[in-house]
Amino acid sequence: MQVLEHVPLASYTTFGIGGPARWFIEASSENEIIEAVRFVREQNLSLFVLGGGSNLLVSDSGFPGVVLHVALRGIEQQSLGSVTRFSVAAGEDWNTFVSQAVDQNCGGIECLTGIPGSVGGTPVQNVGAYGQEVAETIRRVRVFDLQTQSFVDLKAQECGFAYRRSIFNTSSRNRYIVTHVEYELKNNASPVVSYIDLKRYFQDHDGLPTLTEASSAVRKIRQSKGMLIVPGDPDCRSAGSFFKNPVIPSGLFAQIAESAESEVPNYPAGEGQVKVPAAWLLDQAGFHKGYTMGKAGISRKHTLALINRDGASASDIAALRDAIIAKVAAKFEIRLEPEPVWVG
């Protein structure tokens, strides 16, 4: 195990922003994770676990403790009749795994293509898009428990999955280090075409699209919205969707709908609850595509993507974040919740 000092973190993030890690360790095996944790405990240091760097914003001062970059690799699979189980190491690139599954005609994650990051981050955030979320296919998650100092296999029902939530980012935040995720995918499956953009894309398609066609369509849609990382595209220096779609009481939604000049997009979210697109709220509050505030801004292609427009600092992004939250709260009595994790 190699312990590095004062390692800049900007290049490890999709924002391209952030100061240095005081100490930096890359772990490519479970034994190296044990060694890294031992170093943290012996030196009485704080710990941050880094995966693909696609859902975080690192402060300008960096992180004062140990950044542990989980870089375990490997994909194992087992065919069991109508399903195939994939045990995937946390450091594997998420899109590489999605492509492998789709190529083998294994369905369940085809609409989750184009999402940047590593496999280990998917259960933490319960990654979802275009009508699918990983909670529907995860069978178990292997973790290192920092409390018991041991490896544990958590069943899906123990992970507390909900919309963009799990025990890993709520009740047990900072307790577990994800090392492997086991997914169960359906063999020879038909794709999920439930999301409005996908339905529109395939409205003139003859018959049901294949998994490959559906996955390709999602990538094209994501690229049109600036939600696909393309080298050289300034709208790609972001963490994707910056705010979660808020779930609000139906009474509050009725008030908003009554005063709105046009129909308010919404989705059912359980009894007495309505989910409202955060992008609509931003737009109505004056934060439109292409909006600029100093060196930070909003993507020209998607209202929800806050971007590093021209050498922005973490403070620049945070200032825009706070301005958006304040104005949406004042206008709609809704406090938006950021998706990216603040580090530092």
UniProtKB/TrEMBL annotation:
EC nos: 1.3.1.98
SUPFAM superfamilies listed in its UniProt record: FAD-binding/transporter-associated domain-like, Uridine diphospho-N-Acetylenolpyruvylglucosamine reductase, MurB, C-terminal domain
Domain FAD-binding PCMH-type: 16-188
GO molecular function: FAD binding; UDP-N-acetylmuramate dehydrogenase activity
Record localization: Cytoplasm
Pfam families: FAD_binding_4 (PF01565), MurB_C (PF02873)
InterPro entries: FAD-bd_PCMH, FAD-bd_PCMH-like_sf, FAD-bd_PCMH_sub1, FAD-bd_PCMH_sub2, MurB, MurB_C, MurB_C_sf, Oxid_FAD_bind_N
Top enzyme category: oxidoreductase
Transmembrane segments: none
Keyword NADP carried by entry: yes
Keywords: Cell cycle, Cell division, Cell shape, Cell wall biogenesis/degradation, Cytoplasm, FAD, Flavoprotein, NADP, Oxidoreductase, Peptidoglycan synthesis
Entry cofactors: FAD
Pathway recorded for this protein: Cell wall biogenesis; peptidoglycan biosynthesis
GO biological process: cell division; cell wall organization; peptidoglycan biosynthetic process; regulation of cell shape
GO cellular component, as recorded: cytosol
Catalytic activity: UDP-N-acetyl-alpha-D-muramate + NADP(+) = UDP-N-acetyl-3-O-(1-carboxyvinyl)-alpha-D-glucosamine + NADPH + H(+)
Active site residues per record: R164, S241 (proton donor), E339
Purpose of the protein: Cell wall formation.
NCBIfam families: murB, PRK00046.1, PRK13903.1
Record-linked HAMAP family: MurB
Family the entry assigns: Belongs to the MurB family.
Name of the featured protein: UDP-N-acetylenolpyruvoylglucosamine reductase
